[in-house]
Amino acid sequence: MTRVYSLLACLMLANVAYAQDNPYLPEAKLKPENAATWNVGAGVTHKLLHMNVEWVNPYGIAYAKAGVFWNGDKEPGGQVGFRYPYHLTGTDQNGYYIGAYAGHIESKEVDGEDKARLGAGVDLSYVMLSKERISTFSVGIGAGEKLEDRYGNTVADINPKLQISYTLSIGL
What we know:
Blueprint: H1 2-19, E1 38-45, E2 48-57, E3 60-69, E4 76-88, E5 95-110, E6 113-129, E7 133-144, E8 147-148, E9 154-156, E10 161-171
Antiparallel strand pairs: 1-2, 1-10, 2-3, 3-4, 4-5, 5-6, 6-7, 7-10, 8-9
């Protein structure tokens, strides 16, 4: 009886160890020696002038942007997102990346004051990535929350919105 329990425990341990080898994880395409792990920079994303922080890991680039919209009352805004390297084209980690983002997508005037709209979307980027810098040009499409004025009139509807972005970051 003790041998059966020992055999069962061994089989369960083998299955647990196998479960750690998850075939659903994406392929790690970025090599840590080819890019700085942390990068800081600035850019513009659909009328949002921002500073940004980017974290390069083997699976892609995570980023956070914070700034102000240049129209109206200079309403603050920000975004977070992640880009996965879809097709690398050069000796560095240059190439096409697909990603998703969430945060403020635009600023609209509602009842005489500016309001930043929250939203989310997907994008296709071309990233020039090296040890010294990250230069990213992206085109995305997303949708934002519906904005209404105090009378119930729709100021901004939930329609797809094009977002064009450029950022330049320097490795730390």
